[in-house]
Amino acid sequence: MAPEIRLEPARAADAASIAQLSRRVIERGLTWRWTPKAVAALLLDSETAAVVARSDGRAVGFAIMSFRFSSHESHLVLMAVEPELRRAGVGTAMWDWLSTLARRGNVERVALEVRAENLGANAFYGSLGFREVARLPGYYQSREDALRMAFELQPRPAAAPG
Fold first, then answer.
1. Whole-angstrom Cα distance, residue 45 to residue 66?
2. How many domains does the chain have?
3. Per the residue annotation, which of 113, 140, 144, 152 is the catalytic one?
4. For the segment 87-145, what is each residue's pLDDT rounded down to a tens digit?
5. Is 125 a catalytic residue?
């Protein structure tokens, strides 16, 4: 039987568990950028929304989105799910939670960066409807390429012929 997963807004008290999951799942092999202090600052930012997935009181996934880039674009800063819970709908549920907030805020486009070699994550984001818009050589600490991907939430109306 699959564990019960509950989604709730992330709090500053979640910073350490989010940072540890980021270290193990996202930042493996890189210098640790998203330390508990850095994550706490992000969670306290008024232009950031974050969701945490819990199972038996333990954080098993998280997603953090920043809304500061423009009034119509947001950035999916970090997203991770414990490996044993992948393909169980946790990532999709977190994306649904954040994309609903983005739509309510009239966001038209969500962008993200992901390791180019992370085929599982690339496929996951593709299954949500993200598309690759650029390859960023050496994006991760000048060692690994990233793919920039984008999701169009609410296409802008076409310009009137003029």
1. 9
2. 1
3. 113
4. 888 999 999 999 999 988 889 899 999 999 999 999 999 999 999 999 999 988 888 89
5. yes
